[in-house]
Each structure stands twice: as structure tokens, then as C-alpha cells.
User: What shape does this take?
Amino acid sequence: MARKKTGIEFEGFEEVLARLSKLNGNVKKTTEKALKETHKYITENAKKTIAPHKLTGATEESLVEKPTIEWNGTIATVKTGFNIKDGGLASIFLMYGTPRIKKDQKLYDAFYSARTQKEIDKIQEDIFYEEIRRIDS
Amino acid sequence: MKDLLINTLLTFNYPVILQGSLNKDEAYPDSFFTIWNNDTYDGNHYNNNPINYIWDFDVNFYSIDSNLVNTKLVEAIQKLKKVGFIISGKGHDVASDEPTHTGRGINVLIKEKGE
Assistant: This one.
């Protein structure tokens, strides 16, 4: 990595999006809110798992804490992870290991595990449904 | 599924070892693959029981030849896809303990039918 790009991917997203649009909901704002919460969830978990590796603190400090939403047409994504330029090089050793060093599975899982993906899907889905309920009530 | 992965990679005639398993004093082979099973989780369910499982692996290739690092991993992607592995993208750089070697890695998934 050490950067991961995440979009809105939960099951049934297309239908939820159509419903929100039909209600004249603010799709852009809701999408950005969902991605910011996604970033927060991943980054907080990564922070917890990187803490035991604190030698100089450089890797922890290179964790990108401010979410930047990128729009490419109608697709929005947010990047999470470590900034190599800001001292995050060690994150590559930790995330993937080396032939002599085992990877830090917990740190890897904070970004990539099926459990993390499930949690992200739920966070995003809840935000969209919350917005639909708010407009529809 | 692990056997299928190892056997497919062995057809390239390079050693296949577990990531992190090489001893401190053990020399790197000139070129080699490493693998690591990140997780094996439930796929789809029927009647609250998993009907299949997803195996999630890292596959890395290290070499003293930096060109080989790029080309061999791309060949591995093609071969692994042919036997049923799911791979997205063309990989990422991975760290080496030895300055003589560089490496690249991919994430590899495969579905296994449940009992």
C-alpha cells in the first residue's frame, strides 16, 4: 500500500440510490457523508493496530486522518492508509510481511478483511437509509 | 485450495515458501514465490449454513532480476486465473529484507464449495 481506495459498494446500493434520487435527496452529500464515516471507521481501527509498533511513531503519524473524497464522474471514492512520503514506508513491511518477517494480520485486516468490508457496508447502508427516512417522514 | 495455489505456482519452477518463514540466516533463493493465507471465510449461505468458502491469499514474487519481478507476476496472474483464482489488478510492491531483491505481490481469492 499503503493506500486503499474505497467506494460505496453495499448490496442493493443501486436501488437505494434510485429511491433517494426519487425523493429529491442530496445524493452527493449523502455519498460523501458515507465515505467520510468509512474513512473514520478504517482509520480508527488502523490506529489501534499500529499502536503496538510504535518505535519512532513515524508510521502512526503517516496515517492519513483527513478524508479526501474524489469524484470521477458519478463514482466517488475515499483513500485510507499510510502516506509513504510522510514516513509510512514501514507500513508496507507490516501490511504484507517479508520472506523473513510475518505480516501484521490485524493491521492488514483493518483495511482488507471480510469483516471490515461487512462493517463498511453496514455503515454506508445505514447512512443512506437514515437520509431516506429523514426525507420521507 | 492451498495445494492448488502452490502446485500452480510450482509450475514456474521457482521455490514457493510461506511469507515470514525464512530464517534470519537463510539466504534468499535468486527468484521465488511466497504465499500467505489471510483468511478463509464463509461465502454464500443456505438455511443458515455456508454453502461455500472464500480463500484469501497473498502471493508475492521476489527476485534479483527486477524485470522478472514484473513479468513473472503477470504470468502468474494469467495462470492462476485459468485455474479459477480471482485476481483484480496487476499487483503492488512488497518489501524485501535483502537489498539484492525486489518484490511484487497480488491478492488472490478462490471459492471452495461447502460440504
Remarks:
- The helical segments of chain A are 13-22, 27-50, 58-61, 90-96, 105-112, 114-136.
- The interface with chain B takes residues 1, 92-93, 96-103, 105, 108-109, 112-114 of chain A (CB under 8 Å).
